[in-house]
Write a structure and sequence with these properties.
Number of helices: 6
Structural class: mainly beta
Number of strands: 48
Helix content: 10-25%
Strand order of the largest sheet: 31-1-38-32-36-35
Largest sheet: 6 strands, antiparallel
Shape: elongated
Distance between the termini: 52 Å
Length: 683
Amino acid sequence: MRVILTIALLMSVIKPCDSKIQTLEISLTNTTGADQDISLFERTISPLNQRTSDVYTSLTVGANGNSIFCTGNDDFYVVAGAIGEIDRIDPTTKVVVNTILLPEPISDIEYDANKDLIYAVSGATATLRIIDCATDTVISTSALPVGSVPTQLNYNPTTTLLYISFSTLTLGVGEFSTGALVPVLVRTFTVPLSATRSVINTDTNEIYIVNTGAGGGFVVYSLSTGLIITAVATTQETLTYNPESKEVWGIDGVTLYFINPTTYALTTYVDTTPIAEFLFNPNDKGMYFGTAAVTGDMRVAYPDHSVVNFSTGLTPLSNSANQKAAIDVVNNIMVFGTKASTIIGFIEKTSAIIVGGTTEYNFLVLNVFDEPIMAERICFYADSQAQLSEGVNVNKVDADGIEIDYFRFPVLQVGSNQEQGTVACLDFRNLIFNGFTIFKNYTVRANESVNLVLYYRQQKRICFLEKKNWFSAPKPLGDKYVTELEELRAEADVYVRMIQDLRKGNKIFQLDITNTSASPVAFNLFAPADNSVPTNNPNLVFGNPDDYNFFMESIRNEPARIYGMEVSSDVQDQLSQGLNWARLDATGNNVAFVMFPINKVSPYYQDGNRALFRMKHMILDGIEQSPAYSILAGATVSFVLYYRQWKRASIFKDDKYDFNKQLLIKNNRRLTNQKLETNERFA
């Protein structure tokens, strides 16, 4: 055992950069009737760079704008502060479902998700009340220190401690334990004059306290030691923590601050109007805030510090009023207090793309800068043939910051009989995701769903330097490389051999059709009524109508047995179109099924220009046809049929098509097998 352990330890030292293949799965659903483009593995915006559309509504509740969201009952709680009223609102119906009345005005409320409790504090009476969200009843009332004026609550879910900001010199911010539903003051943090706002950086375990007194700015304390770390002189009015960028952000009347969590240096975004109410939306990683001066104007800032303006028709309250906004993450609905004190506004984010698996996706995308991944393969799973044929635009940023992109098509897997497959895969060679490589504008088709599975190896950045052949060009033609090329050529030759087999003993007929319109056209291929011209659409032009007419007339007396059909086009998507095949049975009922081609592309996934349908003895006799083959806009398609032709009576001389005889042979074989099994059982 000791020897084995030693060997294992040595192996871990010798090969520290070896890594196993891991998988990541995400699902995308397009809920709209239009194609939607989405960028994958973009580090700066997550998840999946969704900046969605908005729906704006309002509700009159007598509120002062303070609001929270209780996950226990999935409802908003909004304060009508001056009268001591808390209204419970259903976020989906936007109506008040219950009202909690308190005997004093309410300054602020906060939610404890660990216990499903609401904390409500009153600056007028220095009282803290605890409300049970399950019953909407007050279960605890406590007096805060005499002479204090509480203004704001902050709950730390990591330590389960409650922080109360006070606009008095002696307290500043108090840290309270509420384990027995009775707040116990643990320690205090002071500022020179007044601490109306504070926020906790849970990543660094520090508290930032707004100093509205002499000197202004904010003071940073360590929650581990209780000691002051630094004081920054600004005209800060409010602060909030951004869990995505791991920064504390602040605002004053005209400026948005991004505060470095290590140096506490400020990066500013200058605005021309007062800014109000921060709210972080984990669905699109945006920090939402409004303006008090411009009616209906709001903004959203992203972790990369970009800011987008949009209009709601709702004017949020000024940040100086110490208001809170709230979000229902599941339904992606936000609620804001407005300047009209009796109205709250709802912003409902509607997404064209529904994303599944975003937790793992977000973690991977944000982590690749420190630990890049080597992508081995990505597979796309979908029920739609068109979705599986969507190409991927791989976009890289080089050392000079220049974007380099190249388009690649996945290899579609189909069954042996060319029935529709459910998976298409794209293999990579030396593709590294490190925050600078993305799949740009991948298309999810209208009302379609697709699952993506990425196969990758993840390593420390230093490990990639060991793989020097990844970065050297051109590659040496060593034995391994030559072998790989030979294998790829052999794979490519399979297609050639199939064509050679089809040419042996078969006739060849070629039909050329061009779609002259700007839209796809569904053509009824091999329908007797469509000879001379494709009568079902005048936008289709035949290259050789006389040959087509002669062929269609001949198959009525001499049916053609089709062994294969090759499709050629310069339009890559054309080669992935399925072929609907319809036949009439003996009773005249139509039996239809879809066949899909073997899409031939080069070994390195450049566009190919040929695809092949392998057919098992399809018989064209003027009855069988392809009623809905789609020719894409502006595409020219050449169909090459490999077939043999017989007099109608000759077909039945072949035992293969004597269906009664075939059935008899099958039944005799089954009975023989049953006898053999019986004899073996009783032997």
